[in-house]
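Backbone shapes recur. Consider a single case.
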Amino acid sequence: MSRSILLIDDDPEIRALLVRFFERHGWIVFAAGDARTAGALYTRERPDLVLLDNELPDLTGLQLLDVLRARDPDATVIMLTGQADVATAVEAMRLGAENYLTKPVELVHLEAATERALEKAQLRHRNRYYTERQSSVVQEELGVDGPMREIIRQVDVVAGSDTTVLLLGETGTGKGWVAQRIHARSPRAANPFVEVNCAGLSATFLDSEIFGHERGAFTDAREQKRGLLEVAHTGTFFLDEVGDLAQDLQPKLLKALESRRFRRLGGTRELEVDVRLVAATNRDLETAVQSGRFREDLYYRLAVMPVRLPPLRERGRHELADLALRMLAELRRRTGRGPATLSPEALEPMARYAWPGNIRELRNVLERACLLAPDADSLRASHLPPEIAATGDPLGPTDDVSLTLEQLERRHIARVLAFHGGNRARTARTLGISRATLYEKLARYDLADIGRSGGQNRGDPLRGSL
């Protein structure tokens, strides 16, 4: 698989020699003769390795090393110098150089040094990624309930294989988080997780993003560029909003998935890649196939294991409260302020709100509340946006202390049944009773028609006296 290196040396003959040497050994090579050009190349290309000469016309190699490491603490740099100077070597290592070599250096030794440096850098990246991802997964596991429990179980089962997964669901339902969980619990967890969003990109630009391009492939292609499919080698490639993939690119993606081989845009050489694909979309791909907007063969290649994520409005009051509390805790850890708990007066309108933006909208609402009430102990209805706080109670205002236990039970069953859209199984689970007991109570309280045919039963039991 291709690796990339940035060669920085002011001697054009040495630079040309090194370019030929590394290209012959399968590296993608970028070259610069001064610090300014090198800095711009590094920012744009983010090479895997930098080979840096200490003698440059505008900065010393040590100064440029300091700049690169400040810009990117993960920059992996091998220093080269024409003079064996212990003080310079010590300073280079202090600034973060991976190795320090004195010219002239035999090419076989240079090759070994670059291989070792790259291997150590990849190991550091994998260890850090694995640690961070595992920590994130543990946080997200807390309190998963309702419909998501079975989905998470399925996801964890399929994560251990290399099966292609297609995540379906509305915008903001957590498809990106599930894709990351699949990767974190897979044998590829220590390798790259690379995401590409297909929405809003032209076919040419998306082709370049996914597959890369050769120099001169189009007007602005001044340098060779690796595609993100190459970057994801041995890891997971997450193709988000795949339903928006340009039709011109669909056959190219299908071929790459089936053969694990592809060409860069404008290239003639086939590259081989080993990735696990996870795709996601909020579109109805079956309808898109029927209308001819999405290739049927690509759809079946993606939908080996389809997983549909329910919208937030279908996940129940308890899971909504659990998600909100975990998000509040995360926001407090990050900002050091904001409510730690959720008051019943805030949960009521939140549970009745439709949440068209799903989990993403919930997070935004809670972050806004933390900004508005940084010192509040509990999130209250007054901290919510007007469109949520003003969501009316379908039961109407009443004085609960004047009701009998039977009236309170009828009211609560009616509220839960309405919240679940008339779904008896979910209502019974929320209430903690059997379905047979629920049916008996529905008949006793004349609630059997709630949530059916889009309305309530005669007398509209959700309003009026109980």
